[in-house]
Amino acid sequence: MAKNVLKAWLVDNTVTTDDKTDKIFQLETTCSIDKEIILDRMVAKNPGVRRETMALGIELMEEVVAEALMNGESVNTGLFRGVAKQNAWDAATNSIYVSLTQGKALREAIKDTRVDVLGERPTKFYIGSGQDATTRAVDFSATAGRNFTLFGKNLTVAGTDPSVGVTLTSAATGTVIKIDNDMIVLNEPSRLIILLPASLEDGEYMLTVTTQYRGGGGALLKTPRSTSHTIYIGEAPEAGGSTKKSDGSDGNLEENPLG
């Protein structure tokens, strides 16, 4: 038989609004206890330890937990919640969590806490690999007038800044050719398919994707960012190409699961 007993109400699950029959369990709070009652119960369980010693232990724990929280460490907390099936508690599918509300010690620690804003969290953005539609080559060689697929992270071309789009810069002449929007066949975060101009001469080009796409469904970036990779119209040299980010550093410094 269980040592502890919790009482819970069945309430509507506000997360699943499309399912009117979906319920969760909500705790029925029986009473509130403070530190003195906790100490009373601790002494009752172990009368061999002085109450003052136990009180000191609680104070030290509060101080350590407060410092941990205010330095970004996680203390496991949550909310008593479980999806109800057949209006009964099922230990196999339901679980109990405890939510802690900040007390005096934590409020004092909050007052003595500085928040350093690191700026917007950087999102992975790179070209990982490419494939020519004609030859199926994956060495960044491409065929003029044919589709070329780029695989990577957050490559979706989006935004109104004039720089947004896909460009090809000739290594031989420095000429910059911008791909028309209607030549972007597929525009997805992990896959970008472009139709290369038929007029491209064989040789080396720097293909650059510039976008304001943030990733993760967020708002567009205020400032566009770019990532680039060398491609070859015709055969690629054995050494292969290189990747560059908008800051000019080596793109391979970013984690790239595509190699």
Can you describe this structure?
The chain is of the alpha+beta class. Helices cover 15% and strands 26% of the residues. The protein has 3 helices and 13 strands. The chain has helices at 35-45, 51-70, 104-111, and strands at 8-12, 23-27, 83-84, 126-132, 141-142, 147-153, 165-170, 176-178, 184-187, 191-195, 203-211, 225-233, 243-245. Strands 5, 7, 8, 11, 12 and 13 form a 6-stranded mixed beta sheet that branches. The chain has a 4-stranded antiparallel beta sheet with strand order 4-6-10-9, with no helix packed on it.
Q: What order do the helices and strands come in, and which of them pair?
A:
Elements: E1 8-12, E2 23-27, H1 35-45, H2 51-70, E3 83-84, H3 104-111, E4 126-132, E5 141-142, E6 147-153, E7 165-170, E8 176-178, E9 184-187, E10 191-195, E11 203-211, E12 225-233, E13 243-245
Parallel strand pairs: 5-12
Antiparallel strand pairs: 1-2, 2-3, 4-6, 6-10, 7-8, 7-11, 9-10, 11-12, 12-13
Helix pairs in contact: 2-3
